[in-house]
Amino acid sequence: xxxxxxxxxxxxxxxxxxxxxxxxxxxxxxxxxxxxxxxxxxxxxxxxxxxxxxxxxxxxxxxxxxxxxxxxxxxxxxxxxxxxxxxxxxxxxxxxxxxxxxxxxxxxxxxxxxxxxxxxxxxxxxxxxxxxxxxxxxxxxxxxxxxxxxxxxxxxxxxxxxxxxxxxxxxxxxxxxxxxxxxxxxxxxxxxxxxxxxxxxxxxxxxxxxxxxxxxxxxxxxxxxxxxxxxxxxxxxxxxxxxxxxxxxxxxxxxxxxxxxxxxxxxxxxxxxxxxxxxxxxxxxxxxxxxxxxxxxxxxxxxxxxxxxxxxxxxxxxxxxxxxxxx
Length: 327
Known about the structure:
There is one protein chain. The chain is mainly alpha-helical. It has 13 helices and two strands, in the order H-H-H-H-H-H-H-H-E-E-H-H-H-H-H. Among the domains are: 3-101 and 115-146, NADH-ubiquinone/plastoquinone oxidoreductase chain 6, subunit NuoJ (Four Helix Bundle (Hemerythrin (Met), subunit A)); 150-182; 216-274, no CATH class. Helix 2 (23-45) runs antiparallel to helix 3 and helix 6 (151-161) crosses helix 7 (163-184).
């Protein structure tokens, strides 16, 4: 093996034979760095929490790519598995539980406050740019195919040279977990209602205010749609608001009668769906149970079967003749 080949084989894979960064690595770093910085700006300027979380995920993925390109595959995989796969997934799950609709409330600031914040931001950018510009970076040497980034080496460094820092970090995480549990814990203000308590409360409300104790009406079903956002119609032809689920009504996703059935909406506005207002509806006799009374059903009975001893006797053909003689 010639000395040139031996020297080239000893250099890291991301460096050329002359010891400089290769063109492919430079392009990869430029693309990933631009995407990471763009996602960082999006993280700072996002008005919705879900967009900020997605931007953070893209930042962590970009860092993982840079770790792997820098011959530190263990750090890259850890970045993907621990931070992107576990921490940010948990953050997104919490955001989905809380809700993603609408913009987050942002406090209104005066023009002077905004100008002062912009001035400090510009000053920070100038200082950081000057520090980076005047810093003398060492020559790129690589990590010798990642030998210095193995789990054994990282464990020796973290829990050998920086054991106090790691212990303090673990203590900080435990304090944060306990604080989160304490802040989210809620004391029950009123005792838990059982099913019997709920039934008694409904019956008291019916006796006092006439509120229907049964279940709420189901959404309307029309020829054009059977969505849950369509209202049902009362006997008077009016749309029942309670027939639409409360979640859809709060979000403003409920539909008007004219949206699902223009003909029915026009008839309602014209007052043609009022023919059943004065109709007398029979009741079954139970409280708050309208409807036709229960029908009186006459169930036909099957003829009584003959006793087993009589049914088993053989028929005698001479019996009718004997009865005629006795007459």
